[in-house]
Amino acid sequence: MEGHEKKALPSIRTRDLNESRSSKMKKKERTRNRPRDRAALRINPTEQIDFPLDPNSKARSEGLLILENVTTEKRDVAFKIKTTAPQRYRVRPTAGVIPHGERRTVRFMISKDEVRNILKKMEAGTMRKKPDRFMLMSMVADAEESFDKDAVDEDSTLWSTPRWRKRLVKYKFRANIFKRILISDDSESSDDNDDDNDDKEEKHI
To answer: Tell me, what's the pLDDT at 22?
Structure first.
């Protein structure tokens, strides 16, 4: 009708739209990982992986992550490891399957050459302050199903299949790289000699 202005439709700001999408994604993340799936693994350590460096021998350093399948319904658990510094760490194994009641030890190895580089950076004060990170991804097989051990590797399509991506559980760890403190035998023997000298002095008093 003439004389009446058309009402403008409310505009949706890009920020509001992004916030709405973000909240939906977070809601999906909360409902995606079922308690049963998250309780499928017993993990040690739970937050950080230690890498002690020997400043004298400069030998390679190794960190360990122990995974144990503790599912109550005797299901397989598949796992995969990722890192933010693949050039620094050699991970073995990078992926695999853990049958019920069994455990796997994942080794994170830093080579001798890389240990030397890290020690040099520590001495020069140029070591990156932000720690390297690792991510463990796992998923639990359905009842009466099992994962093919030979087919589950880091490049397996299993990790990108929509059906299984919904079941992914992720755990994050940080690398704790530090110099190993060595106590020499000479210091211990000198302490013993000091104690003997103290005893002799006490006898002469």
So the answer is: 53
